[in-house]
Model the fold of this input.
Amino acid sequence: MNLSAIRFVVLAWGLFLTGNALSFPEMTRHGYANCMTCHVSPDGGGVMTAYGRSLSREVLSTWGAEGEEKPLYFINPPEWLLLGGDVRWIQTFYKNSTTERAKSIFMQADVEAAAQIEQWSAVVSVGRQASTSNNFTGSPIFTRRHYVRYSPTDTLSFRVGKFMLPYGINLPDHFVGIKRSLRWDEGAESYNLEAAYLGENYDLFLTGSIGRPDDATLNRDKGVSLRGSTFLNERYKVGASYFFGDSPLGQRHVAGPYAILGFTKDWFVLAELDFQHLSPPTGTSKDGIVSYLRVNHEITKGVHGYAVHEYGKTDLKQARTEVHSFGLGAQFFPRPHWEINASWQKQKIQALGNEYADFAYAMIHFYL
Done:
């Protein structure tokens, strides 16, 4: 493997670790199937509700004093205004038979606010973006999402603005194959119009996207997504997603099932399998597959150990498109607002050779 290829691998894996705002779908194992229990967004992630903050202290974190979950101790905003934000730093390490490389990356610094007045909500975030991001728009300061939401009832939600398309599991780390290989990695938010039903036992999202009309060079899809899921036996959530998109890169159909399985409050599984059919503007069509599996055990409150496996092949007829990784990790929520995540994996990117390399990272995440 030559030096330029090594640089590509280290930079890509490091930068793709830049995640969306905090969202932990595994809270399903505690009986919370509806993301709006903890977040303003119906799909989860982003600024949290007061109840969500309380859960971050009572359920998620190892320690926490009364009131520590509040976003800022020295600010008491009115009840209609919710504040949030994320700061992330990561140290990566890569090693194969010929190269050893480490890299430190300051990934994210975002602030976010949500105004809620009766059935209306308005959300806006402002933060920084690395110039090396696949979705860089020319300025390091950008807004990751901004939208208006209207909820005429407790179960109906309508939203318009810039946000991530609901598809599959809303994982906080967009470096995973089901996000990266499907072009839904960091910064891939688009301008959308969404209608959602959020019932006690099932939910359904229908979202139309006009892509990124503000920057056509990003080649974002214009299309539609449909995602539905059902909540079973208080701790299991299973669903399926479909997406059709049209961009200068071609037309594509993406579909597949996903599951969030809380076998107990201590053991859970996140699983997703997606198939993609891509018809490029020239040449033959391509069929591909990506998968993600995480098996997690909460050893004690706020301390997790997990095993993860990913496989992707975006063109089943081309061996060089295959990517495979597996490994172990540990996640620690010492107090409200803090997350520490470390992982070691064996990874093979077939386009760069048939060798499995060692990849490890340690991330510190502070969220308001």
About this structure: The chain has three helices and 17 strands.
